[in-house]
Amino acid sequence: MISFESDYICGAHPLVLKALTETNMECLSGYGSDKYCDSAKEKIKKAVGIPEAEVEFLVGGTQTNSVIISTMLSDYEGVIAAKTGHISSHEAGAIEYTGHEVLEIPQKNGKIEGSVLKDYLAGYFADENHEHMTRPGMVYISHPTEYGTLYSKAELSEISEVCREYEIPLFLDGARLGYGLMSNSTDVSLKDIARLCDVFYIGGTKVGALCGEAVVFTKGNKPKHFLTSIKRRGALLAKGRLLGVQFDTLFTDDLYFKISKHAIDMAEKLKAICKAHDLTMFLESPTNQQFVAFEDEKLKKLQEKVAVSFWEKTDENHTVVRLATSWSTTDEDLAELDKALS
């Protein structure tokens, strides 16, 4: 069976695995205080174009979202997110578990709009009872979104401007950031994101690493005693070298961007295959996640040979599934998919 179930179904890119093997017997200090973490941080700061940026490594997306949000918010604040946002729908209440409410607002194809955000914030402060309500203290977006869609530079700038007006930080979840940056349809660069966001992270788990996310604080705003806060939340990796070695490799010779581009190329071929079989695309995604509507009986037949992710039911006889490409997708995988759809 072949799998398009997600973009972290394989282990690590061979060069990442090679680096881990070659450094395996080195005796290094723990908790990220090693030379590979230091080197990776410098490479990332250069890539984002902010020499004074502060970079920290965490293991996975949910831990990263939870740690960032809970350390940057006051105890009376919540985080604004799209109703379909990852922290709203697929993190099992991890944010609420820290004592912070996720304040959901409407979305369109996974994205929030600057005007909707501004109306929400204006409405909150216009309410004479707002002192009795959860105070919005941060805006969370993901890029790409859970639907594989992307913010344009103009959209991202508008949201950033609203956040500046209301003096709240903009946090961008970049679990699949590489696939967004290398999309054929984007006008947003890594430096744009660093300039417009207060904090974001560069996803490794879904983009060539065994695990790991690189958090970037761009405005001298890293919470005090951040390492202590990470540990207090049970998210500090003793062998922090594992994260440093991986990101040091991913940010050497543009590997992160090259393998992300490969996933986009594979996604475009996958999309063409689906359309050649007269399948209905649920929406037009410019990234590595493609959403396809199937008649249920045809889907059952496909799943005998191909692993996909359930997304949602459109009616009693049709289901939307997600097919994701990644750095590890091959032309042979796509040929097998084409054959399975025949």
The fraction of residues assigned to DSSP E strands is 15-25%
- Low-confidence segments, ≥5 residues, pLDDT <50? none
Helix proportion range: 40-55%
N/C terminus separation: 16 Å
Helix/sheet category: alpha/beta
Main sheet? 7 strands, mixed
Order of helical and strand elements: EHHEHEHHEHEHEHHEEHHHEEHEEEH
Number of contiguous helices: 14
| Overall pLDDT level | 97
Shape: globular
Within the largest sheet, what's the order of strands? 2-8-7-6-5-3-4
Rg from alpha-carbon coordinates: 20 Å
What's the total count of β strands?
13
Layout of helices and strands:
Blueprint: E1 2-3, H1 14-22, H2 35-48, E2 54-58, H3 61-72, E3 77-82, H4 86-89, H5 94-97, E4 102-105, H6 114-126, E5 135-142, H7 153-166, E6 170-173, H8 177-181, H9 190-196, E7 199-203, E8 213-217, H10 226-232, H11 241-250, H12 255-276, E9 280-281, E10 289-295, H13 296-302, E11 306-307, E12 309-315, E13 318-324, H14 331-341
Parallel strand pairs: 1-11, 3-4, 3-5, 5-6, 6-7
Antiparallel strand pairs: 2-8, 7-8, 9-10, 10-13, 12-13
Helix pairs in contact: 1-11, 2-11, 6-7, 12-14
Task: Provide a descriptive summary of the structure in words.
- Strand 9 and strand 10 (about 290-295) form a beta hairpin.
- This protein has helices spanning about 15-20, 35-50, 60-70, 85-90, 95, 115-125, 155-165, 175-180, 190-195, 225-230, 240-250, 255-275, 295-300, 330-340; strands spanning about 1-5, 55-60, 75-80, 100-105, 135-140, 170-175, 200-205, 215, 280, 290-295, 305, 310-315, 320-325.
- It has a seven-stranded mixed beta sheet, sandwiched between helices.
- With about 350 residues, it is an alpha/beta fold.
- About 40% of the residues lie in helices and about 20% in strands.
- Helix 12 (about 255-275) packs parallel to helix 14 (about 330-340).
- It has 14 helices and 13 strands.
